[in-house]
């Protein structure tokens, strides 16, 4: 027994001395683990790992309030209790780290900066508020956000569709699961609930409204669609083997990182020649949806972007390198252009910008395989 007591004292002293370093380290480890793992795991394995984070968080929250309610102060409880918030924080770090990986993949950073910064802000706030991590309202608020985003991804894959329907279902189901979890916790948290009911209800309802507002303002990336590649070409034709041949200016460097908005490239065309935009979008196997290339020209006088064409094509998920498609526009006026790749409800997947110049001499082209 003395050895157990000694271990308890040692662990509590370690936790007390290094408390300020443990929480940010746990967040960093969880994020780096996700960054490595989710780039190598299959979609099914990723879903299982994320689900395990929810199990870890739920079990730890339950026992945290169980020990507090029952006033258990034995050596075993003293050894476990200080580390329960650490485990909870690791679970949340893993969840939001996974979401950052998925959402950064889904849309270039410039197009989803607000939502990405919001996720990062949640992680920072949870670390800064670690002393309050025993609070029921903070736990439930973060649990609700993470559950909401997870169900949005899962339901989009299960239903094989992208858009408002899976989002609304995720809203309803996540709220129902939170209420069920609070019901299971009720014997342990009834006293705390009466004390924190207003802040708890304000937190949950505020999160619900905020996420819906972000979605309908198209500030949440259209998970599970991921833009793999996009480019502007002088011509695109099928190669007869399931791929495409694209004609680009000889010596022109190909593309730039999709993490940020693509740089604007120059296209030199003779009168009447078309311009092609090619995109490759990854989606899980059973997702079948319509994608649009929205061509826009910048009006120098009005200082606004004017939509000239909205061209649709049906895409089917399942291909590792993404579903490939292209659109073409004839009679392209000189000036600044961009093509937005969007879903049916105008959620932005990606964008390519380019400047069109007229030339009397055709440019020298080379062929690349897509």
Features:
7 helices; five-stranded mixed beta sheet; three-stranded antiparallel beta sheet; 370 residues; alpha+beta
- Continuous helix count: 7
Helix content: 40-55%
Write the H/E string, N to C: HHHHHHHEEEEEEEEEEE
Mean pLDDT: 76
Oligomer: single chain
Distance between the termini: 68 Å
Could you describe the largest sheet, including whether it forms a barrel? 5 strands, mixed
Q: What is this structure, in a nutshell?
A:
With 370 residues, this protein is α+β, with helices and mostly antiparallel strands.
How would you describe this structure to a colleague?
- The protein has 370 residues and is α+β, with helices and mostly antiparallel strands.
- The protein is built from 7 helices and 11 strands.
- The protein has helices at 2-37, 43-70, 75-80, 84-106, 113-128, 136-159, 164-216, and strands at residues 226-233, 235-238, 244-249, 265-269, 275-282, 288-299, 304-316, 323-329, 335-342, 348-358, 365-369.
- The strands form 3 sheets. A 5-stranded mixed beta sheet has the order 4-10-9-6-7, with no helix packed on it. It has a 3-stranded antiparallel beta sheet with strand order 1-5-8, with no helix packed on it.
- It is elongated.
- The relative contact order is 0.11.
- Residues 255-262 have low confidence and may be disordered.
